[in-house]
Specification:
heterodimer, A: 311 residues, alpha/beta, Rossmann fold, Alpha-Beta Plaits, 2 domains, six-stranded mixed β-sheet, 11 helices, 14 strands, B: 249 residues, mainly alpha, two-stranded antiparallel sheet, globular
Chain lengths: 311, 249
């Protein structure tokens, strides 16, 4: 049996937009192991959704290969679609149908016919049992997202593809969905999700591929990606200072403003902080809200691309 | 078969649960019929009273309205909402999805035709012969297929639901008054008659009207069927050629 649930080799793809041709994927290669949660992390426009579309058989790539469980997607689209449960970026539910009816019809599209009891068990698992007879358009955005996830799982797929599963959800709903995704992993499914949330990638994913401008710039476990930052810590403070002078502080590496907060990567946090206080005093300013934290995936992205992930 | 039935049932439920669909396809045509009856009273047209003459025309109009406005807007809405793309991602063969969609359209058209005829029978004592009813049924099915093809052509060519509605309504209302469906064709100037007699609504109206009034197929049946077939094939070709599962970016 093939070790990889998904294998992608030198994938290139484009699409036509109102602004002309967009080269969305420029030679992407990756492999998703069976039973892992694999994250594609990158900002809007990085190519994450296009990559997912190629795996789902919705978008024909220009060159390269995509295999699901060892089967080439382009040659056997129906066979590969059967192995995957998917949640698109938008819930895309038929609004006039109830939760139960939606699960019935989408499962039928996969030639699966769950009983009413099985549907209610699934809805209960995703805290939607009280919404069973409610129409999709009467549900909140968070409920629709959870219902879309429920539908993706109604056919008991080996592989689950989630495109921005917690987009536009409040923190409570987001954590609820994270819990559901972790439960899926425990059941042995392979999960590939896209996200532009560093928190989501760090919390959920055993492996993360960072995407930017149609290419994968790094791929490893979150811990390894962060360790490659050369153990730089991040000093964060609220103070208004010229960036070029902040960059000249002892031990300082990457320096940027995130909103009103100054963030300085440093190998000598104590020395950098002392010098920062001195610099601030010279400009008649006070340094407030000081924190020193370990580097995260946002810092990794910034180092690799020169851009902020949340920009 | 089970899968086909489930998909058809779901699409049908989704359709009838839209209040606007129920109003425009089931209630509004009855309202139109009442208005026409009030305006034209007991006028005699082509040797029959107005109600006997106009009911088949309103049946044909209703079918055209459903296909060119309702059905085209529904498909465009599903594309805009991402539902079509979601369906594309499933292993269900596209032909199964389209067959279910056509089945829903046929069921809806037959339902609204039955409601229209029952209303006319009860309210205005409209009658027709049994043979006329039987002969009109395949004509109504042909009209439905043609109307849906025209509607899907609109849906494939326009970018948004609002545009689909506008184009569908323009085509519908233009043909409503110029093809002899609710106003006698002879009232139109000759130059206009020479143009509009080649529109699909004219052919469909004649195909439905002849059996329901005379109890048999009219003298122009072959001509009308040819016109309808040509429009159906052309619209169907364009609908298929330009069909998109998702919105253009």
């Amino acid at each position: 049996m093939n070790d990889y649930a998904i294998e992608i080799n030198d994938l290139r793809a484009h699409y036509a937009s109102s602004h002309g041709r967009v080269d969305a994927l420029k030679g992407v290669s990756l492999a998703v192991g069976r039973g892992e949660i694999f994250g594609l992390l990158g900002p809007n426009g990085a190519g994450k959704t296009t990559l997912l579309s190629c795996i789902e058989g919705l978008h024909a790539p220009d060159t390269g290969s995509v295999k699901v469980c060892g089967i080439e997607v382009g040659q056997h689209p129906m066979q590969t679609k059967r192995k995957m449960g998917i949640q698109l970026q938008r819930a895309a539910l038929i609004e006039g149908l109830t939760a139960v009816e939606l699960i019935e019809v989408y499962a039928a599209l996969y030639d699966c016919y769950p009983t009413r009891e099985q549907i209610m068990t699934l809805l209960t698992q995703f805290q939607l049992a009280d919404q069973a007879n409610k129409r999709a358009k009467q549900m909140s955005g968070g409920q629709q997202q959870r219902l879309a996830l429920t539908i993706a799982l109604s056919t008991d797929p080996e592989i689950v593809l989630l495109d921005e599963p917690t987009e536009a959800l409040d923190p409570r709903a987001r954590r609820a969905v994270w819990g559901m995704i972790e439960t899926l992993k425990k059941s042995g499914r392979t999960i590939l999700l896209t996200t532009h949330s560093m928190d989501e990638a760090e919390s959920l994913c055993g492996h993360v591929a960072i995407m930017d401008a149609g290419q994968i710039v790094a791929s490893d476990t979150p811990q390894q990606l962060i360790a490659a930052m050369d153990a730089r810590q991040v000093l964060k403070a609220t103070v208004e200072l010229p960036l070029d002078q902040a960059r000249a502080l002892p031990g300082a590496g990457q320096v940027r403003y995130t909103g009103e907060h100054l963030e300085i990567e440093t190998t000598q946090p104590v020395a950098t902080l002392d010098a920062l206080n001195t610099l601030a005093a010279k400009h008649g300013r006070i340094v407030r809200d000081i924190t020193i934290r370990q580097p995260n995936l946002e810092d990794v992205y910034l180092k690799l691309t020169g851009k902020a992930l949340s920009a | 078969m089970k899968r086909f039935v489930l998909i058809t049932r779901s699409l049908l439920l989704s359709y009838v649960r839209q209040p606007a669909t129920v109003f425009w396809n089931l209630v509004f045509p009855l309202f139109l019929l009442v208005i026409y009856r009030l305006v034209f009273g007991s006028a005699i047209i082509s040797g029959v009273d107005y109600i006997t003459w106009v009911v088949p025309g309103v049946v044909a109009l209703n079918i055209l309205s459903f296909g060119m406005i309702g059905s085209s807007a529904f498909m465009t809405q599903m594309r805009e909402n991402g539902v079509l793309r979601r369906l594309q991602a499933t292993p269900a063969p596209p032909v199964l999805l389209f067959a279910a969609y056509i089945a829903v359209n046929v069921v809806m058209c037959l339902l609204q035709t039955a409601v229209m005829m029952l209303f006319a029978l009860i309210t205005f004592h409209w009658t027709t012969t049994l043979s006329g009813l039987v002969i009109s049924l395949p004509m109504i099915l042909i009209a439905t297929i043609a109307s849906v093809a025209l509607g899907q052509c609109i849906s494939s060519l326009v970018p948004r639901q609002s545009v689909a509605l506008a184009v569908g309504q323009l085509l519908y209302f233009t043909q409503m008054f110029t093809t002899g469906l609710v106003l006698p064709f002879d009232m139109l100037p000759t130059w206009l008659q020479n143009i509009t007699r080649f529109l699909p609504a004219y052919a469909i109206g004649d195909l439905v009207r002849s059996p329901l009034i005379a109890g048999n197929l009219g003298a122009d049946t072959v001509r009308n069927l040819t016109v309808v077939a040509l429009y159906t094939l052309a619209a169907g070709f364009l609908a298929t050629r330009f069909f998109r599962w998702e919105q253009k970016v």
